[in-house]
Amino acid sequence: MLRGMGKNRRYWFAYFIIAFSICVAYWPTFTGEFILDDRPLIELNPYITEFHSLQSYLSQEDGVSPTGDKKDYHTGYYRPLIYLTYWMDYKIWGMKAPGFRTTNVILHILSCIVLFRFLLMLSNNKSLALWIALAFAVHPVNTESVSWVTSRNNILVTFFSLFTLYLFMKSQEQDKPLLIIPSVVLFGAALFSKEFGVMLLPILFLYSRLMIHERTKLSEDLIRLIPYILVFILYMILRHKTTVSFDWFLERGSKNIWEHVFFIPYLIAINLKLILLPFNLHSFIMHYPNNYFNWNTISGICIVLVTFFIVAKCKINKIISCAFLSFFIALFPILNIIPTSAVSLISMRWLYFPMAFLAPGLIALNKSLLGERKFLITSVLVVAIGYFGFYTYILNMNLWHNEKTFFQQELSRFKNTYYAYGYALYQREKNNTKKAESYFKMAITGYHHKNASVFVDYSSLLNDTGRPKEALIYLEKSRSLPKFHTLKAEWYSNMGTAYFQLENPEKALPYFKLAAAYGPNEAINWANLGAAFGALGRYEDSIKTLKKGLTLDPKSIEVMKNLVITYTRMGEYKEALDIINKMPPCEIETNQHLKNLLKNVKLKLMNLK
What we know:
The structure is a single chain. The protein is mostly helical. α4 crosses α5, α15 crosses α16 and α22 packs antiparallel against α23.
């Protein structure tokens, strides 16, 4: 009993070292902001501010706003557990980015602790298990998963998968069959966190065949997996019902499949380089090379052949065989054999999951090399972990801290023009119109020349700065580009606004009608439609339309302003004044147009008296 308590104390010291190292390396993230996808999927997403039914969470497709239309847009990603964790974050922290980021750090700590215990179980060497767990804990490649809130799925799937494998192995080694129950539950949690969890099935089989001390028949190993397979089938049924992903994936994966297979070694080589030689890390936007034979492709082929040759010989530690094979299995989802909606072939966040399964191989290699080289190996590990931790701190401070630092690093240092569109939106939000316009143009001539969103947002800026003719040019360029449901509403709205500014309400009217049809829950669409009816002298239609907009948003200044204009045109100045009096005084004080409306209405009322 006392001996067990002593062991637990030693483990708690290891846990403290892991947690402390992570907190130091990730210190800047505790003051960070929401960035990129964090904003639409968390900060501006009303879905996560309320608790929903189990059915509601199970019917959510990741990357598609739960409040938006699901008919025109699919990502193929099914991770329903993620939205539940966002809701829990909101209840704990409120809508504060540092709180959400803190949760990511806590989950990362837990993931590293489970990794440590798993390594300890395999190697029975606490020092080496701690060193390798620390290397994973502060590895700079993992900063994208930990500091970017919406990359939480990578941490969760890894945490649940490691815990699943740990309990699975423990149940077999210590003859505790009941441990299979929590192991299967955790496997389900891994699947519902991210589709990477599917790769745990072959990994479980691999460890069962190679690592269980008592040699068993193949059929017995497969029987052990039956509960996991049943959970997997349930997951696939729910996934298909939500994402229609089978047809979607097959359609995308049917083109250039042999090219994708040929470049598997190329992607393996790039991913290994990010793990073993981490430098110049950022948010990569990488595509296939122009030529089939290059250094990365050839080195990747050599790495794959050497690895499988070593494994086939079976003369080395079984842990190494399991680790390297598990690593390649875990890499499968990111080798682009079946394409996804991702814009890049390489991403740091995708390595969080496979790198955890590579760790046992690293610990076995170090253990076999120790002997008289103990001081040398320890020194190398200390230097590597020190470099990893320092680099992680720098990335958290200068890249992942907020959108300003992120966009400046990507565009200025790494010349990554993919993010020109994001930076244009950021500059527009900060009212830096000239900078926003230059980056919109960069985006249109670069990566986003076929992205309707950038044309729509740029045309909106042109309308706001009084250049409707230019807005129409860019809107026409994007007319034939694919648009999901809500984007169609914005496109029609911008077309109508441009014609309305050109004093052609008759031509604007049909566009405003379509905008309201595609975006019926947006008050601004009814405000614009009501304004067009009023400009055409259809006052009854105008009042009816604007009142509908007011029911959607009783505080909409745009709707109230257009109501005042219509009532004024009708000569109903008292009604117009009543609407103005409902506006916040600060809005009238800072808006010259509203000031003029108020002055005109009061003057008309005085003349009537």
